[in-house]
Design a protein that fits this description.
The chain has 188 residues and is of the alpha/beta class. Helix content is 29%, strand content 15%.
Length: 188
């Protein structure tokens, strides 16, 4: 891909979730159309960052191990979403810090910032999470939230509906009556 004049192209927030993979796939298509770079960003924070400085450090991975895990999450997500054929065309960036702040920083001067979201919110809550809301509020570039496609479901069948073979002329197959075909009068 050719370098966009500002050098940052399309930035995508990646966290390993299905919504972030949907955003990555969408952004890859857009980057191809726009002839710009695709930058996949994974922001992470050390697990010990939420503890008081005087508290004992919990047993667990070291900061270096957490950084390696973050890089692995990003690599695995890019490979799973885009396949190995496009893996090299994506610039991967792993940054340490609060996700919203790091995404906004990485997106400065970008063509746009792409984020994944659930297709529908639960219980009337928005489908964009707290990181996405923060990015939408404070971004200096356009932000696109890409929904996860709903999984295909079996079509609903009407109760006691006539079979399509028996009544195909008057039914559209979905339980609704098909519009009547009318002939134009012919002059004789």
């Amino acid at each position: 891909m050719t370098e966009h004049p500002d050098g940052t192209g399309i930035v995508v927030g990646v966290d390993g979730s299905e919504p972030s993979m949907a955003a990555l796939r969408w952004a890859a298509e857009q980057a191809t159309v726009l002839h710009t770079d695709l930058v996949a960003v994974h922001a992470w924070q050390p697990a010990a960052s939420g503890h008081a400085p005087y508290a004992a450090v919990p047993a667990g991975p070291t900061v270096d191990q957490e950084r390696e895990q973050a890089a692995q999450v990003l690599a695995d997500t890019v490979r799973k979403a885009l396949g190995s054929r496009i893996d090299g065309a994506v610039r991967r960036v792993v940054v340490e810090g609060p996700p919203a702040r790091m995404l906004l920083q990485q997106a400065r001067g970008a063509v746009l910032l792409a984020l994944g979201r659930k297709a529908h919110g639960n219980f009337g809550l928005p489908s964009v999470g707290p990181v996405g809301r923060e990015c939408v509020r404070h971004a200096t570039v356009p932000v696109v939230t890409v929904p996860v496609a709903d999984r295909p479901r079996e079509p609903l069948k009407a109760v006691n509906s006539p079979s399509p073979a028996r009544n195909s002329a008057s039914s559209s197959g979905d339980g609704r009556a098909a519009p009547e075909a009318r002939r134009a009068p012919t002059s004789g």
